[in-house]
Structures are given as structure tokens and as C-alpha cells.
Target: Putative pre-16S rRNA nuclease
Amino acid sequence: MNKVLGLDVGSKTIGVAVSDGLGWTAQGVTTLHWVEPDYESVREELQQLIDEYDVNKIVIGLPKNMNGTIGPRGEASQQFAAFIEESFQIEVVLWDERLTTMAAEKVLLEADMSRKKRKKVIDKMAAVMILQGYLDSI
Model:
């Protein structure tokens, strides 16, 4: 069964989540470290994830400004999405991720997680929330 990969693309890290086989739930997988905009620095790891999880679609968080416009981070996500489509010949969906990082932070704070531990999982958690939002919508 094909799965969907969710990515929270930041300037230094990329949070990764994957759907279950039925496309109902998202689970955090890992956090990739990269040097934006050097797409080649994550090509191999992305290929491994696509192969390992038999991915046929990737959902990338699109950070919009609160008024709905797209700023520099949103443009960076659009460029990353174009790289994914060209490099891996895979469908990419850009998903409005406004508030996901803040929501992830709130969940982790409520779980009383230390700042150091939060920093390690925040990107992966944001990727889960992006992917889960997408899965809930279809």
C-alpha cells in the first residue's frame, strides 16, 4: 500500500512524517539536517525514505503569513516542492501549515517536555501535524 510522506521544511532541518497504509494517521519518522538551499544535501536521504515507505505522494508544509500571503519561507517551500517533483517524479501537495509549529510546541509544552527535548522533536511533530491535517481533509 502506498503511503504519503509529510515534510516540515525549515532552513536547517526537515521534519519527516509518514502515513499508515490506509492513509488515516501520521507518525513522526525522523528529522533530516541540511544546508538550505543545497537540495543535493538531502537527496539521498529523501530517496531512501521514499523507497523504504513506498511513498507515492509528498505533502510539504506551506508557511503562509496570517493574511494568506506567501513570504520568503513559503517561497522556499515552493522551490523545495519543485525540486522534489523534478528529482523523484512524485506528486507533491503544498499544505497550508499556519500555526502547526506553534500547535506542536503547545502539545509538547503540555506534555511537560524539557526545552532541550522539545527542540529535538518539534520539526518531526510539525510534520505529523501537517500530514495529519492533509489526511483528515481527504
Summary: The chain has a mean pLDDT of 91.
